[in-house]
Amino acid sequence: MAFELPALPYATTALEPHIDAKTMEIHHDKHHQAYVTNLNAAIAGTDAEKLSIEEICKNISKYPMPVRNNGGGHFNHSMFWKLMKANGGGNPTGELAEAINKHFTNLEEFKKQFAAAAATRFGSGWAWLCVKADKTLAICSTPNQDNPLMDISDCKGTPILGLDVWEHAYYLHYQNRRPDYVGAFWNVINWDEVSKNYHNAIK
Ligand code: MN
């Protein structure tokens, strides 16, 4: 069963003015589609065709680089679209809010540390909030299309929030102003989805 491009869960215009429609269209329809197409080509005829994208990521050291780059690209973007929504933003609630306050003192401090991870990732990559094996939270970043599920990652855990800091995610609207894009992300974040991911990760 070949991997498929998931539909965006909202219109390409839904995140404006924070993330513009043209960026969303190209990012989803062209970039994510390319990761899916290239992943399918890279695993064609191999046992990986029977695995989930999570299983592939967790054993990524067994695969050649095209599987790592495109498999990571597929997992990361599939998660990313759902982490945003129209009229997003606000504050996390419930157990996620408690965990953030416990680990980072308060939401503002969490946002500051997450933004720093996004800003200081040199070149292309992702910033993450993860649940580690001991169920505590951690912020980190990964290069390229790597992610914290990957057995090769310096930063291991279950990602519950990820932010794409590749230039293709923001350059049309923000040009070189990555920190402005990161700041705008808080206006479209879907905290309910982060909470759902958190609960699945601490089970
Ligand atoms: Mn991307």
Can you tell me about this structure?
- This protein has 203 residues and is mainly alpha-helical.
- Helix content is 47%, strand content 10%.
- A hairpin with a 5-residue loop joins strand 1 (125-131) and strand 2.
- Helix 1 (21-43) runs antiparallel to helix 3 and helix 4 packs across helix 5.
- The longest helix is centred in the first third of the chain and has 23 residues, at 21-43.
- It is globular.
Query: What is the chain-wise order of helices and strands?
Result: HHHHHEEEHHH
Bound molecules: manganese (II) ion
Classification by helices and strands: mainly alpha
**Total number of helical segments?**
8
Q: Which blocks of ≥5 consecutive residues have pLDDT under 50?
A: none
Order of adjacent strands in the largest pleated sheet? 2-1-3
Salient structural properties:
203 residues, mainly alpha, three-stranded antiparallel beta sheet, 8 helices, 47% helix, 10% strand, globular, binds manganese (II) ion
Topology:
Layout: H1 21-43, H2 53-58, H3 65-82, H4 94-104, H5 107-120, E1 125-131, E2 137-143, E3 158-164, H6 171-174, H7 178-185, H8 191-202
Antiparallel strand pairs: 1-2, 1-3
Bound molecules: manganese (II) ion (MN).
Structure, briefly:
The chain is mainly alpha-helical and about 200 residues long.
